[in-house]
Each structure stands twice: as C-alpha cells, then as structure tokens.
Amino acid sequence: MDGMKLSFPPESPPLSVIVALSLSASPVTIDSSAAATTVPSFVFSDGRKLNGATVLLRYVGRSAKKLPDFYGNNAFDSSQIDEWVDYASVFSSGSEFENACGRVDKYLESSTFLVGHSLSIADVAIWSALAGTGQRWESLRKSKKYQSLVRWFNSILDEYSEVLNKVLATYVKKGSGKPVAAPKSKDSQQAVKGDGQDKGKPEVDLPEAEIGKVKLRFAPEPSGYLHIGHAKAALLNKYFAERYQGEVIVRFDDTNPAKESNEFVDNLVKDIGTLGIKYEKVTYTSDYFPELMDMAEKLMREGKAYVDDTPREQMQKERMDGIDSKCRNHSVEENLKLWKEMIAGSERGLQCCVRGKFNMQDPNKAMRDPVYYRCNPMSHHRIGDKYKIYPTYDFACPFVDSLEGITHALRSSEYHDRNAQYFKVLEDMGLRQVQLYEFSRLNLVFTLLSKRKLLWFVQTGLVDGWDDPRFPTVQGIVRRGLKIEALIQFILEQGASKNLNLMEWDKLWSINKRIIDPVCPRHTAVVAERRVLFTLTDGPDEPFVRMIPKHKKFEGAGEKATTFTKSIWLEEADASAISIGEEVTLMDWGNAIVKEITKDEEGRVTALSGVLNLQGSVKTTKLKLTWLPDTNELVNLTLTEFDYLITKKKLEDEDEVADFVNPNTKKETLALGDSNMRNLKCGDVIQLERKGYFRCDVPFVKSSKPIVLFSIPDGRAAK
C-alpha cells in the first residue's frame, strides 16, 4: 500500500475504511481536504483509483499483512464477510436501526466474532456502522437491551482501545449521529500508523545487547509459589532471551532459611515449566556460599567492610539520620575476630552483622553501609546446619550475577534506589559489571502480591492453599480457568514499560475469553432450587435422543446427546418471566406456547403447562430458554463463584491485611447438568449456556457427589 492516498469528502469520512487501515497499520496517507471528491477513493502512486467505501474496505481486507484472516481464510468465510459488509449500511437507516441491532445481537449470542475465530472486516464494518451513529448507539450501549451486541462491541474497543479511541475522537463527534472529518492540519495528511503495530513487544531494547551473547537469569526466592508478578519477570526474561538468541538460567535466591523450603522450590520449577520457559540450567545462590564468605573476608581485609554489633533498631535509626556506627573504624583484626564468632554462631556472633563501608551521609539511603551478612543459626532447607551465617540479597545477587556471566539483570523498578548500591558492591569486589534493566512491577486491583501476606492467608485457613483459585499464584489463576496463553499475551502487551499502573483484571479475562470461546464445548445447567417443571402436553410420549454439536462453530468440540421428554426443567427465574399465552423458544428444540401457570400461595411459579409450536419463528420470541429433560440421567453440579480476597483496591505498606479481609469470597450454587458432563475431566473448560464459562475442578465420580465447576470471569465486569 506504499504511496497510496485515501481521499474523501470532508463531511463524510469512511469510518470503516479508516478503522481497518488503522488496525492493520497500513501506510496510507489520509487527505480529508478533497472537496471535489464525492465518494471515498484510494489513489495509487501510478494514478490508478478505487472508489466506494465497501470496495476500499475489501481491498484493505485482502492486502492487510498484520492481521491474518482479515478477509477470511477460505471462499465461504470471505462470502460471509461480504454479506456482513453489505449489511452494515442498514444501520444508517433510522427506521431499521433497532431491527438491525436485534439481528446482529441474536447472531452473536453464540459467537465471539461475526465470521470465523478472529477479527475480520465484517466486524470492522458493523462496529464502525454502530460507532458512527454516535449518541443513538451510545444510549443503547448503556441499556441491557442488546447484551451480546454490546459485549462484542466493547470487547473490540477494549482490545484495540488506543487505535479505536483515536479514530473515534478524530472522526466521530460526541452527541452526533454523523461522522465528521478530521481537522485540516498536518495530522490529517500523515500516513495512518498502527498504534498496535508493536503490541506485545517491550518498548525498549536491552542496552548494549549483542545477538547471541545475552545471558539472563530469573532468580525467585523459594519462599512461596510463583505469582502473576513473578510471571511478568519470568516472561520478560524469556522474551529478551529469544529476541537476542541468548539464554536464561533459573537461580534460586536461597539466602533466608527462615522463609524457604523444598516445597516452594519444587512448585516454582513446576510453575516455570507451566509458563513455557526454557532455561539452560538451575542454580542456587547457596552453591556459592564458600566463595561469598571468602569475598566478605577479602573486603574486610581491604577495609571495604566491617563487623557491626549495633542493636538493629539503633542501626536503623543511625542509617536514617546519617550517623556513622561506632564499629565503623574497627581494625581488620577486630573485624576478623568477630567474623569468626559469627561463623561459629556463638552468642557474641549472634549480636553481629557484616556491613559494607560506603558513605553514611549519602542522600540515597541504600548507600548508607548496607548489611552484607547476618548470623542465623537456623537450618537451611538444602544444606542443613552447615552454616550459621547467610549473605543478604544485596551482597549475594551482584556477586553471583557477575560470576555466572549474566549480561543483563532484569529488576522491577521498586529496586531503583538500590541500583547504585548494586554497582558499588561489584566495584568493591573487583568483579565485572552487569547491566541492570528495570521494568514496572505488576499491580492489580484488590490483589495481594506480597508473599508474606499471601502466606498469612494460607496459615489462617482463609484459603485452601497456594493453588486456591482466589490467589494470584500461577497455580491459582490456572485453577480458576485462565489459559497460560492469555497470561503470556497480557504480560507481553504491557512490554517492559517502567510506568507504574494499578491494573484491572478485566483485560486479562477478556483475552482469556477470546482464547476459550471459539473452542470450548457448550452444556446446559439449571439451578436446582425451586426449579419448575414445564409439561408439554403434545410432547413425546417416549423420550428420544438427538446428537447435536457441542459448539455450533467448532466441529472439534464433538457432539452431545440431548434427550427430549414430555416434561422439562426450567429455572425459576425463567419460569417467572413467562406470561400465559406467551410463545417462548426452547434452545436446541424449537418454540412452545405456555397455556397454564401454577403458583403457590406466595406467588412463586411452581409448574407450567403448554404445547410445542416447532414451526414457530425463533425471531419472534422474547425469551430463549435453556432447559433440561426430566430424566434420572442428569448430574449434580456445584457452581462456584469467587470474589476478591480483600476489600481495598490497593493495600498500603502500613495497612493490616486482617482489617481488609473480604468475608464473602466464595458462593456455591447447586444445579443440575446435562448427562454429557459425566465425561468432563479435571481442567476441562466449558460454557454453560446463558451462564458463562466454567472450569471443571472435580469431575464426576458418583451420582451422590456433585461435579464442581469454577466460574471463569469473562472480562465484562469485575468478578
């Protein structure tokens, strides 16, 4: 498309064409000043022209390289796309607008996209037609009238928000029903640039990185399970290693025996594998304890470190006030004598620590004689009681990074003030410097990422363990129903940004929905409490079974056996919405007319009676109902919904977790499910029609024990 220009009359920009060009990052110059032009046109560098909005849209669909299947991947899909592109013009007809909304809403009840399993120009045409009506569509978006259509519209806007909001701000006037031309400025003459062109890539390259020579490390402390914050660090290491054809090693920073265990090591290895991270080897900081002790002694002999027996509280106050320790000028002999006491773990040694000798008046408090070693007689999970002293992270990390040949150490921006300390430690040690690269810590609303606070929830029994589906651990969110592909996409879309943002979960769950919706099987469930029996007087005298697809658009989901009976179960909420004489649609069967409604003394519906009307049109009915046959083959279900563990969007350091615990984080609803769910396996993801997406946590074992399904958020609302 190089050298091509889009011209159109100033009063009527072709919104769908501009949206398609922006999404596909097509290098086209926009000229909205062509007053003599009556229709939108592409003018090519050799003078050739194409005219008409739908012609231009199809051209973009065929030539876009950034978006696969933008015009379908086979003749049938392309023909379907043509149908929708032509249909989009109906939305500009005032009298037909709501009918058109209704038709597309119905179509999208069981679909994520209009054609196939990815965005196409069919979606662009209908989306732009709606957006172009301005306030009329905005009013409907806020109502609950066309929920499937609104869900589809919002998911596209959410996925491509930066690009689409820019287009809308430029070409659609708020409160207007008409698109408006861009201002006549330099901007309107510039090429359309795809703001999402580099989506999923970190914003900045690694400094001084050379192809084939980059060596990175992912260094978790084995004091908890891997959570979504760690996953960001791990996946960025993976990304940069692949980008520079380098390597990643996994190193366990096991320098604090009070918090660490082999259980955490084993599960961290498991979770790293779940993320698909390929690493060269696994190392441990404890592998280097002898060398670290030698280095500490070397620094003491050189006058670059000293042993301090100042009480901890006083030491902290002196550091804050910039006051030198009374031990700062100990002789080498005195330091080594106390060092030996520390190594022995004696009573005298337990009073001491080793500190680096920097500058106690440095404005950066991280440079005020940091602690290098502490005396700790606790047993180490890996090497037992061999040592009574352990290095701090600030001392061990730069040493091992340099020794292992790490070229770039990725650290979250919370360590920024300690970067100068990192470089100074390596300088005093006389070791090779390592490049530091910062990225922002991942912060999510109503979410704890402190391992200490997560451990508190585990120890108090408020959760079932580190893999609890309410936990932000990798095992927890996978158990909730998140696909790892969604997590990877979510994290890489943020890139290596240094901006500190408090993010919503909705974006992550929206990505997850786009992955599971095109392939997950559909099943039916009815809430057990107060369910209502609907008797069809002309229904089948003998039950019969029909095989129907589990997913109408994905053959790979297989088929399910649906039993049709004279009496069927409906949910009370559905039964209560029906009027006598009303025609309703029974999904996957046909229409029925309700003749009688029985209620109890409190006015609750207890039974319905009616007749089938299988020739009736599903387009004319207001209610589309899920139902189950009245047979003994139905399975018992427990539908489980979860809420956030805390009630405050972001806990501050001084906040006590116990003060913000959400008392209601788990809701279980008993239901009946179709007999096909007996075949579900643990981990299977399904959609319950009209209820949402669920992951099977406990499969069918026996009739008396319910199948446990966990509700998967879909990104439409915080859950």
From TrEMBL:
Residues 101-156 form the Glutathione S-transferase C-terminal domain. PROSITE patterns: AA_TRNA_LIGASE_I (PS00178). Residues 176-205 are annotated as: Disordered. Residues 520-609 form the Glutamyl/glutaminyl-tRNA synthetase class Ib anti-codon binding domain. Signal peptide: none annotated. Residues 213-516 form the Glutamyl/glutaminyl-tRNA synthetase class Ib catalytic domain. Its EC number is 6.1.1.17. Residues 624-697 form the tRNA synthetases class I (E and Q) anti-codon binding domain. Residues 195-204 have a biased composition (Basic and acidic residues). Keywords: Aminoacyl-tRNA synthetase, ATP-binding, Cytoplasm, Ligase, Nucleotide-binding, Protein biosynthesis. It comes from the Eukaryota. InterPro entries: aa-tRNA-synth_I_CS, Gln/Glu-tRNA_Ligase, Glu-tRNA-synth_arc/euk, Glu/Gln-tRNA-synth, Glu/Gln-tRNA-synth_Ib_cat-dom, Glu/Gln-tRNA-synth_Ib_codon-bd, Glutathione-S-Trfase_C_sf, GST_C. One of its GO terms (cellular component) is methionyl glutamyl tRNA synthetase complex. The keyword Aminoacyl-tRNA synthetase applies. Belongs to the class-I aminoacyl-tRNA synthetase family. Glutamate--tRNA ligase type 2 subfamily. NCBIfam families: gltX_arch. This is glutamate--tRNA ligase. It comes from Arabidopsis thaliana x Arabidopsis arenosa.
